[in-house]
Design a protein that fits this description.
Elements (H helix, E strand, L loop, with lengths): L8 H19 L17 H11 L6 H15 L6 H17 L2 H26 L4 H82 L3 H30 L16 H12 L4 E7 L10 H21 L3 E10 L2 E9 L13 H12 L3 E8 L5 E10 L8
């Protein structure tokens, strides 16, 4: 694909200004030298015009512009000379380093330095007079100074671009971290909301259905009592969740995370909620007495797993025992909840599968293992078993 070589408008301005300034100096008879090979006044206009035209290519074709401009500068030394020609050459030299290839940007300053040193030494040897140093200084001003200036500006631009890219990369990484933190927090709050409220609402749904379908005053009164208890407890849970969302605002008190010590009350509440459905809940804690508290993330995860498992049993389990077992061995806490698998008479509550997803996520965050499914027990009955193994040491927990 062909690219446009149309001159930049700034380059056109430089070319026109240089040509106009050179013509003014020529008309005024201001030349840079005398006693040259081509003394005719018009001869100095040729290098001037060539340099002005090369100014148009300083940005789009810097290598070509420098090569032609160098020949024009040499030709200018054979005429009466024009200061504008020399000044435009320094700009072409500067642009060749600034807009040229990286290789040219490295080589041109070195080459001009060598030429300046060689010219200074050569004229000293030739003239054998201190004034020859002036020729070396002028050569350095025309060649080396614009080249090193172009290299400095180019390096500054490259450093600025690198800093801009680094800042953009940092901003992108910060945004990714922010998005990941938001997603993780939303997932955590979704688990908390589901585990804290689903148990209460499931009990309300089942008992309200029973109250509507069974036209017996005692049954309705008992169901309404359970509905009220779960509604009050659910409201309290929601208030605690709002406290978490406020993140310690002025009006919010610290929210204590549930622990394994509260499992007795949780199982008792499940017994009350599941009694009309024929569920009998029991807790079997085989941990050693006085074992002490476990890390807070482990206790919270274990509590929520038991809570969600009891909620699922209330929704789906057939009449029979619902057993919660806890065991601590080899720095691993095992949580197991079993219930009778099968259909049951009476009202049920729908399930979405979000509870199993939440339990699996909790266990994964702690680096443990999780399993849930139907299987046969030793008596030939089909049971639903939820089993989670949670490491309790800091070195094995992912946090």
């Amino acid at each position: 694909m062909l690219t446009s070589i149309r001159p930049h408008r700034d380059d056109v301005t430089l070319a026109v200004s240089g040509l106009f300034g050179g013509l003014v100096l020529w008309l005024l008879g201001l030349h840079t030298q005398g006693g040259v090979l081509f003394p005719a006044p018009w001869a100095a206009l040729v290098p001037l015009t060539v340099l002005a035209s090369m100014e148009l290519l300083r940005r789009t074709a810097p290598r070509t512009a420098l090569a032609v401009a160098t020949l024009a500068l040499i030709a200018d030394q054979l005429t009466r000379g024009n200061l504008a020609t020399v000044l435009m050459y320094t700009d072409v030299m500067y642009a060749a380093v600034l807009y040229g290839t990286p290789a040219a940007a490295r080589r041109i300053p070195v080459a001009t330095l060598l030429i300046t040193v060689a010219a200074t030494i050569g004229f000293l040897v030739w003239f054998r007079r201190p004034e020859a140093l002036l020729i070396g200084i002028v050569t350095g001003l025309v060649l080396f100074t614009p080249a090193i200036a172009g290299a400095g500006v180019r390096n500054h631009r490259a450093a600025a671009e690198a800093a801009r890219l680094a800042a953009a990369q940092t901003a992108r990484l910060a945004e990714m971290d922010r998005v990941q933190a938001v997603v993780a927090e939303r997932a955590r709050m979704a688990r908390e909301l589901h585990d804290m409220v689903a148990n209460r609402l499931s009990a309300v749904a089942i008992h309200s259905t029973a109250a509507l379908s069974i036209d017996e005053p005692d049954t309705s009164r008992s169901a309404l009592k359970v509905i009220r208890e779960n509604s009050v407890e659910g409201l309290a849970e929601m208030r605690r969740l709002i406290g978490l969302l406020r993140e310690g605002g002025e009006d919010s008190a610290p929210v204590a995370a549930p622990t394994l010590d509260a499992l007795d009350a949780l199982v008792e509440q499940a017994n009350t909620n599941g009694a009309p459905s024929g569920l009998v809940c029991a807790l079997r804690d085989s941990r050693a007495p006085g074992a002490g508290a476990l890390p807070t993330p482990v206790e919270l995860a274990a509590y929520r797993i038991v809570q969600e498992s009891l909620t699922n049993a209330l929704k789906h389990a057939a009449p029979g025992p619902v057993t919660v077992r806890l065991d601590l061995a080899d720095e691993v806490l095992t949580v197991e909840v079993t219930s009778v698998f099968g259909s049951r008479p009476g009202p049920t509550a729908p399930g979405s599968g979000a509870g199993l997803v939440g339990m699996r996520e909790r266990v994964a965050l702690l680096g443990g293992t999780f399993g849930a499914g139907a299987e046969a027990d030793g008596d030939g009955r089909k049971i639903w078993r939820v089993r989670a193994q949670l490491p309790v040491t800091e070195r094995t927990m992912r946090g």
